[in-house]
Write a structure and sequence with these properties.
- It is a single chain.
- By secondary structure, the chain is of the alpha+beta class.
- It folds into 4 domains: 50 residues; 221 residues, Thrombin, subunit H (Beta Barrel); 100 residues, PDZ domain (Pdz3 Domain, Roll); 105 residues, PDZ domain (Pdz3 Domain, Roll), CATH 2.30.42.
- 25% of the residues lie in helices and 31% in strands.
- It is built from 13 helices and 28 strands.
- The strands form 5 sheets. The chain has a 7-stranded antiparallel beta sheet.
- α1 packs antiparallel against α2, α1 runs parallel beside α3 and α2 runs antiparallel to α3.
- The protein starts with a helix and ends with a strand.
């Protein structure tokens, strides 16, 4: 009986593989034939049929054949000018070695350095890109691939080379559009990155280390990733498909041959930047919006709410009575902004935009940036335990709104209750405001000491930060702060609203030391 039960699944499995081998090559041939004849819609239809058959080798080959003609290598040339440094003081050097009686003098010394001689050298770089509009010759890549280039050359899969007609970039998403003038181009369609799921198979195609038309396979490892680097808008897809130097700007494609992301960066412990299976790619829906604006307007216009936001953890969510941690907490609202006019408040917890749920602050920031200024969106939020929907008319993001971030606050109390939380604070007066670099007086307490082994230190509280609220109530003096922390309700922990010297506010939840 045991052998019979095992034999049946083995026969079925063999039959499925046999069916895949007989059916697969025929479909691959039809895809290749359609691509060769320029029948790209037919090729994509064949891909859709092929994706129904779970035979990975056949599927990978077909996707690679369909997409590789749209993948390009981008060669960048930058001219770097430097000036030769002046010669050292040779007289002084020789006198130290041989004494004062030198039979000659050098022409140049400290008071008479040699002229700086300009020198120029050429730095070359490599990246990847993908043709997204064959009719107009638009190639999508990364901003950092072409940034500062004096010359950008696009090398097609058939080895033809073209210089760019123009380049438009968006540093805030690290995306760029390159235009070339060429015939017989083949493009790849942009897919819907919102429907991509963790575990989906993907291929990364590009020119790692200059090895053009390299294909690697992997899965979507995670969504909504943030690398914490200076790029402002991040909501990356993470993949374990091998990505290395030179893959930047190349496509990450799904099993329908659609570009679902643009490869951008890797996480690696190697000083040489080798692949360790953690790669990040810019989602196609972000790329599509940026690309359209760069082509139509030459720049990206972003939507703007006028708030500072951050994520919440379990402790903070429970303290505030929130329904969960999926969403984004408002930590600051600026006056005369869409948020201010809509009467949004510090402590509001946004969970959806136009009925579509958000998971964290990065997703909210990206979603709002994609909204056209003048559009009214409906924000679903919790104010305390009350759920509400607030309409907000989105404005255009100011070019420089850093100056909007406010400043600060007042004296000392060595309260035992405060120390239990690993803190010492003072009421902010004019002298302390000056000491800690605050230009405008604001009522509150300034942190003057943070214990190293404390929850406060773990949560990022630092000397010079201002505490504005405790458990949602304004705090104006060190004595009042001590009283709030000594209350019985504070024994499990307290929620603080704090502000740093840059004016950025955030909520933290800290627990007392045992």
């Amino acid at each position: 009986m045991k052998s019979t039960k095992l034999l049946l699944p083995m026969v079925l499995l063999a039959g499925l593989f046999a069916a895949g081998w007989f059916l697969g090559p025929d479909l691959v041939g039809r895809v290749a034939f359609a691509v060769e004849k320029g029948q790209h819609e037919a090729a994509r239809a064949e891909l859709a049929e092929l994706s129904k058959h779970d035979h990975l080798s056949v599927l990978f080959r077909a996707v690679a054949k369909a997409v590789r003609p749209a993948v390009v290598e981008i060669r960048v040339t930058k001219r770097i000018k430097i000036e030769r440094l002046p010669m050292p003081d040779m007289d002084e050097f020789l006198k130290r070695r041989f004494g004062d009686d030198l039979p000659f003098e050098f022409k140049f010394g400290p008071g008479n350095p040699p002229p700086r001689v300009p020198r120029e050298y050429v730095r070359r770089g490599l990246g990847s890109g993908v043709i997204v509009d064959a009719r107009n010759g638009y190639v999508l890549t990364n901003h950092h691939v072409v940034d500062g280039a004096d010359k950008v050359e696009v090398v097609l899969s058939d080895k033809r080379k073209f210089e760019t007609e123009w380049i438009r970039t968006d540093p805030m998403t690290d995306l760029a559009i390159v235009k070339i003038k060429a015939d017989r181009l083949i493009d790849a369609p942009l897919g819907d990155s919102d429907v991509v799921e963790v575990g989906d198979w993907v291929l990364a195609i590009g020119a790692p280390e200059g090895l053009e038309q390299t294909v690697t396979a992997g899965i979507i490892s995670a969504k909504g990733r943030n690398t914490r680097d200076p790029i402002t808008y991040q909501n990356y897809l993470q993949t374990d498909a091998a990505i290395n130097r030179g893959n930047s700007g190349g496509p990450l494609v799904n099993m329908r041959g659609e570009v679902v992301a643009i490869n951008r960066a890797i996480v690696t412990a190697s000083p040489f930047g080798g692949n360790e299976g953690i790669g990040f790619a810019i989602s196609s829906n972000v790329a599509r919006n940026v690309m359209r604006q760069l082509i139509d307007k030459g720049k990206v216009v972003r939507g703007y709410l006028g708030v500072e936001i951050h994520d919440v953890g379990e402790d903070l969510a429970q303290s505030m009575g929130l329904p969960g941690t999926d969403g984004s907490l408002i930590r600051q609202v600026y006056e005369d902004t869409p948020a201010g006019k809509a009467r949004l408040k510090v402590g509001d917890f946004i969970t959806a935009v136009d009925g579509k749920k958000i998971t964290d602050s990065d997703e909210l920031q990206s979603r709002m940036a994609a909204v056209s200024p003048g559009t009214t969106v409906k924000l679903t939020l919790y104010r305390g335990k009350e759920k509400m929907t607030v309409p907000v008319e989105v404005a255009e993001q100011p070019k420089d709104f850093a100056a909007m971030r406010g400043a600060p606050l007042k004296e000392e109390t060595p309260s035992e209750a405060v120390r239990k939380f690993g803190l010492e604070v003072a009421t902010l007066d004019e002298d302390l405001a000056k000491k800690y670099g605050y230009k405008r007086p604001v009522e509150g307490v300034v942190i003057t000491k943070v214990a190293g082994a404390s929850d406060a230190a773990e949560e990022g509280l630092r000397v010079g930060m201002i505490v504005l609220q405790v458990q949602g109530k304004d705090v104006k003096t060190a004595e009042g702060f001590a009283g709030m922390l000594a209350a019985k309700e504070a024994e499990p922990g307290v929620r603080l609203l704090v502000k740093d010297r840059r004016g950025a506010q955030r909520f933290v939840f800290i627990t007392p030391q045992k």
